[in-house]
Specification:
Among the domains are: 38 residues, no CATH class; 39 residues; 232 residues, MetI-like (MetI-like fold). The longest helix has 49 residues. α5 runs antiparallel to α11 and α6 packs across α8. The strands form two sheets. A three-stranded antiparallel sheet has the order 1-2-3, with no helix packed on it. The chain has a two-stranded antiparallel ribbon with strand order 4-5. It starts with 18 loop residues before the first helix and ends with a helix. The chain contains 14 helices and five strands. It is elongated, with a radius of gyration of 41 Å. It is mainly alpha-helical.
Amino acid sequence: MQQPQKERTPLTLGKKFRFVEWFVESGIRVLAFFSFAAIILIFVFVFKEASPIFFGKSEAEKTAAKDSMASVINAQSKSVADTSSGKEKVEKVIKGKGALKGTDVTVKVNEKGERKKVTTNGGKVEQEVYDPFADDTPAKPAETPKEEKKPEPVKEKPKVVIVPKIDSVKLAAQQKAERDSLALAHAADLLAVLKEKAEADSAIAKEKRDAEERKGATHLAKMLTGTTWQPVSTVPKFGMLPLIIGTLKVTLISLLFGAPLAILAALFTSMFAPKRLREIIKPVIELLAGFPSVVIGFFALIVMATIFQNFFDYQYRLNSFVGGIAMSFAIIPIIYTITEDALTAVPHTLRDASTALGATPWQTAFKIVLPAAIPGVFAAVILGFGRAFGETMIALMATGNAPLTSANMLEPVRTFAATIGAEMAEVVFGDQHYNVLFLIGAMLFIFTFTLNSIVEFYVRKKLLRRIQGH
């Protein structure tokens, strides 16, 4: 009778602590954390600067704007009051520049027309300041009185003064003429004062209307449906519809030209190209992704625009068609690489089964392999769309930068990214234009983030399920 054998304990290797593995693992965790933190910080920064568009300005900013408006109105009212009171007083502050070398100079003119220059920061005035209201006649230097000996009074005989006879009629007429001239002068002065007051009132009213229009210019619905992009104006217009249309036009043209070429090249590489040729084609196409976008934009600006204009004979040298073709050079490597990987990942059993059933290689490629890799191809197209949607330099150099609302692809356009690149360096910090540009950046961020999330969390899983046969 055999005795039952004792169960052997499984052989296990004790996990030893290795510093290199721990260091690499910790580095990967830190890198992942910083990547996630960078995304959150970018998200917070962009939306923080665009928040005045959504929630309005804070109470402190509103108070500062009201104080600035009140100071302008008070200054205009003070100038009118000084004019109406009959004073010829003018105060002009000239900010130092040029030969003044940073000196703030105040020119004051009193009632007598005398001009006086005063420096507020103790600097030396090195340039003559012209004041149209001042009296340019040089003042006579004051003479010091000399002590003179008083002559002894001489007694003179009293003279007889003969008073001429005054004509009362002429005197009355002369006095009446003087009164009439004075009345006319006062009436002219009054009319001038009233005219200046009316102009000041109209300027104040216009400033209030412009302030209301500027306040309503950043209404989100009005911005998205507005057809005029004119940010530099007394009353700016932030209509984003031309920018949306221009961005979509350039992106769709680049996809229509670049996506078919990239997909067909990937299909040829994975199905028909010999191994030696495949090792050459794939690195060469992927090398195009390393080209700086400014080089592609410069090539489109100098070479492609001239060739296309001479061939098609259209009016505008830079337009959405040239920009879209140049943009396709930037998205072809992305679409090609992802599509080729998806086609290569299709199991060879599907190809062998199709060939065994009598299908030609082209039928196998288009009817078996390509449909099986559709999720990967779709992911490649979406990533290419996001790349073209956010491209800056090519759009800035090759599209013409004109915010036009038109479906004609031979007219200039302006994209979201090109607008930020062209105008961000010239805006005033915290201004309406500044906040609107950050709103455009937030819209780009949301769009590209959404596309990348769809590819990563939906299309990729669907592709893996189809390849694994689930």
